[in-house]
């Protein structure tokens, strides 16, 4: 019986009844196309036929099970069949076949069929058909259609002898097609993939194509002012195609050399005209364009020697520089350039901060009730050498006078008497033992101390020019050293990422503040040094209006429960990276950078931050609303309206990202939130412009800063009785044990009363080019050693 005689028994080719279809389906399991003809159905069996050839299914071929097509001779009855893949040597038809071929038809899994070899006209093998489909589509330019066929060949038949050529031809022709369409990037990617995959395939044409494509891509990058990307591409081409005579490499190397030479010539002209700023910029642009330009480094070094200038990338420029500001990073940073402080914090020790007396040295008695200042004007430079004990004593006395603008209540409460033992020794008698009196008198020393105008600078630098996002600070008087920067230029960046880009390009030498994730990534770059500030910043939300609901503790507690602080910190700010020391807080003081860190002496580790519980937050909001309604009815007053909450933040992307995330979470509590971006240089909103302020505070000395944060005249302006009691008890501490215990008590009070909403602490970092020396690795403020900075090429 021939192969199709069997089929006649079960499924004859003429019209058949429904019963025949069911029988054929049950026996053969074939796919059928059905159509009505009177009371009968006409069926077309697509897995075999007695005549003709199968239709071309196109891409749908890949939806069928793999099969070989067997075609039968006319004298044997003709027709064809889709057979399961045949197990033949080399997957080829035998040269002189004899006997029979055993096969199974797709869809008829339970029956074996046989046919004599002399009845078989041709076998179209599955993989050859895939190759043919792929080649035909490549030839016609249908690369989208060719791709899936080629993918199946690569996956299932990786050792086919023709596959390497087929794949290479696909890559070459598709690259050419894309190039003609203007898709330069994809075209280059395909050509480079071909060069890596089969370097022997039409190598001259491929290299020529890569050269033409990269030339076009370089031209486009230059037109779009993407110089950095163009240089990166050129550097990669030089590395990947060394010795292969790629035309675009030679052309663009010459182009960059000409551009670099043009800037170098302009830099030399600016130097001769004593326009040092322009000369510095152009000389650096020159070596950035072509690092190997002759005399490039020498020119940069010469200009730096004549006019040392350092560019600093900052997230915010300062509006009113003040080295003692608690809540304004930019003001505190820039203030160090313009002013000196009577007692300047140099770092942190096991018992609070370590302070340096500007005019000499200090001594404290064993009972901690006498504090001496010993002036040494002979060791100081002008105008500091003109100071005397009488003037300093007067300034200390002003800090005790409630009518004075520099009055500071903790100092007034601590001091009993101020005396002089000659012009160089000041004795301060304290009412009770004080653990850190130097922290109480961090006073800005301005020009009025030396007969000048109040508020006039006393530091090495003066603010010279403010041009948009650029602020120049120029050195006054003689350089302390030959290498001290004549100018420090602050350049405000759009974001932390923009700052990193400017550092990599050489547009800035220093970055003042990094996103924690950027700091981790930059640490691997050998051209730059990344260092951490020794003291973390404490981030919090500070109420700053008479918003009726924010005045309620229950409502503030609802905001805490409604803020997923851990998620914002780890996801938005740290970008999923683990950064030691960065953590969510339960109070207003830093928690230290590690376990048992003395920096965290004010933080109670046993008080865990409140968890994110939005349901509880909504319940507290409802309860608070009911309480306010009851109070209003009792007083026969109108119920306070829940107005939108205005959340203010500084104009930089770390604070902005955090506040946008907080806004989204609070809106889930059915609260209306308005974000208010502060003007450049401001860190705290003007009265009446916001209800909450996002503050990154330098709470470096909690024993003193507690009142500056929480007191009635502090940031929070708290009049809470428990908070006030906690502050007074803290200021009455006689020793470090008392101070620490009372700080822990204050932490507990703040955790429950919530005069501020604690968020998290961040370990802040700075980065600088290794060519800049003298910056220091343990500085509290970036400009702490600015007079020692020097550039080295």
From TrEMBL:
Protein keywords: Coiled coil
InterPro entries noted in UniProt: SBP_5 (IPR039424), SBP_5_dom (IPR000914)
Keyword match Lipid metabolism: no
Any one GO molecular function term: peptide transmembrane transporter activity
BP GO annotations: peptide transport
Domain Solute-binding protein family, chain residue ranges per copy: 492-677
PANTHER family, A to Z: ABC TRANSPORTER SUBSTRATE-BINDING PROTEIN, PERIPLASMIC BINDING COMPONENT OF ABC TRANSPORTER
Protein's name according to its UniProt entry: Extracellular solute-binding protein
Organism the protein comes from: Allorhodopirellula heiligendammensis
């Amino acid at each position: 019986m021939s192969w199709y005689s069997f089929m006649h028994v079960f499924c004859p080719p003429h019209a058949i009844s429904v019963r025949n279809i069911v029988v054929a389906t049950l026996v053969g399991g074939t796919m059928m196309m059905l159509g009505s003809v009177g009371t009968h159905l006409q069926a077309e069996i697509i897995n075999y036929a007695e005549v003709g050839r199968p239709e071309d299914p196109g891409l749908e071929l890949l939806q069928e099970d793999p099969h070989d097509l067997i075609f039968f001779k006319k004298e044997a009855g003709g027709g064809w069949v889709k057979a399961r893949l045949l197990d033949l040597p080399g997957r080829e038809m035998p040269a002189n076949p004899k006997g029979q071929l055993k096969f199974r038809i797709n869809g008829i899994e339970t029956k074996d069929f046989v046919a004599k070899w002399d009845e078989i006209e041709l076998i179209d093998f599955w993989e050859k058909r895939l190759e043919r489909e792929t080649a035909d589509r490549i030839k016609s330019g249908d690369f989208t259609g060719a791709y899936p066929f080629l993918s199946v060949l690569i996956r299932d038949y990786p050792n086919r002898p023709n596959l390497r050529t087929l794949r290479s031809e696909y890559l070459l022709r598709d690259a050419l097609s894309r190039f003609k369409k203007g898709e330069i990037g994809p075209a280059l990617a395909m050509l480079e993939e071909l060069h890596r995959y089969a370097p022997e395939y039409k190598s001259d044409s491929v290299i020529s194509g890569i050269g033409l494509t990269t030339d076009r891509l370089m031209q486009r990058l230059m037109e779009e002012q993407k110089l950095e990307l163009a240089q990166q591409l050129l550097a990669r081409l030089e590395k990947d195609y060394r010795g292969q005579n790629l035309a675009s490499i030679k052309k663009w190397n010459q182009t960059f050399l000409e551009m670099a030479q043009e800037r170098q010539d302009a830099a030399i002209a600016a130097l001769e005209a004593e326009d040092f700023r322009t000369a510095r910029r152009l000389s650096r642009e020159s070596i950035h364009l072509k690092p190997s330009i002759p005399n490039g480094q020498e020119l940069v070094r010469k200009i730096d020697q004549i006019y040392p200038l350092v560019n600093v990338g900052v997230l915010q420029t300062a509006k009113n520089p003040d080295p003692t500001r608690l809540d304004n990073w930019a003001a505190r940073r820039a203030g160090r350039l313009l002013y000196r402080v009577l007692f300047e914090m140099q770092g942190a020790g096991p018992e609070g901060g370590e302070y340096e007396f500007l005019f000499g040295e200090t001594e404290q008695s064993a009972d901690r009730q006498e504090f001496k200042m010993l002036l040494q004007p002979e060791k100081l430079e002008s105008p500091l050498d003109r100071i005397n004990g009488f003037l300093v004593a007067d300034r200390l006395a002003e800090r005790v006078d409630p009518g004075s603008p520099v009055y500071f209540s903790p100092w007034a409460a601590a001091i009993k008497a101020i005396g002089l033992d000659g012009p160089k020794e000041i004795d301060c008698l304290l009412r009770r033992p004080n653990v850190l009196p130097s922290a109480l008198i961090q006073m800005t020393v301005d020009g009025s101390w030396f007969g000048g105008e109040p508020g006039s600078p006393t530091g090495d630098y003066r603010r010279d020019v403010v041009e948009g996002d650029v602020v120049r600070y120029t050195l006054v008087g003689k350089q302390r050293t030959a290498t001290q920067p004549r100018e420090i230029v602050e350049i405000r960046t759009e974001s932390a990422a923009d700052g990193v880009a400017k550092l990599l390009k050489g547009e800035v030498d220093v970055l003042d503040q990094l996103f924690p994730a950027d700091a981790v990534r930059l640490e691997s770059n050998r051209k730059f040094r990344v260092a951490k500030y020794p003291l973390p910043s404490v981030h919090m939300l500070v109420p700053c209006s008479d918003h009726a609901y924010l005045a309620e503790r229950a409502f503030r507690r609802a905001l805490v429960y409604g803020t997923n602080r851990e998620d914002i910190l780890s996801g938005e700010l740290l970008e999923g990276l683990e950064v030691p020391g960065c953590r969510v807080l339960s109070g207003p003081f830093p928690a230290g950078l590690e376990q048992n860190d003395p920096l965290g002496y004010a933080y109670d580790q046993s008080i865990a931050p409140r968890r994110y519980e939005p349901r509880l937050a909504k319940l507290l909001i409802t309860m608070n609303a009911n309480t306010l309604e009851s109070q209003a009815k009792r007083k026969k007053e109108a119920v306070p309206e829940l107005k939108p909450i205005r959340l203010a933040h500084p104009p930089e992307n770390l604070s902005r990202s955090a506040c946008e995330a907080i806004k989204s979470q609070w809106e889930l509590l059915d609260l209306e939130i308005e974000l208010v971006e502060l003007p450049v240089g401001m860190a705290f909103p003007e009265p009446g412009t916001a209800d909450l302020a996002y503050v990154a505070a330098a709470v470096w000395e909690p024993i003193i800063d507690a009142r500056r944060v929480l007191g009635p005249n502090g940031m929070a302006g708290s009049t809470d009785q428990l908070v006030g009691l906690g502050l007074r008890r803290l200021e009455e501490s006689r020793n470090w044990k008392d101070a620490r215990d009372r700080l822990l008590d204050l932490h507990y009070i703040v955790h429950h009363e919530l005069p501020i909403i604690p968020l998290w602490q961040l370990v802040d970092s700075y980065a600088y080019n290794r060519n800049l020396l003298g910056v220091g690795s343990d500085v509290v403020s970036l400009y702490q050693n600015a007079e020692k900075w020097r550039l080295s090429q």
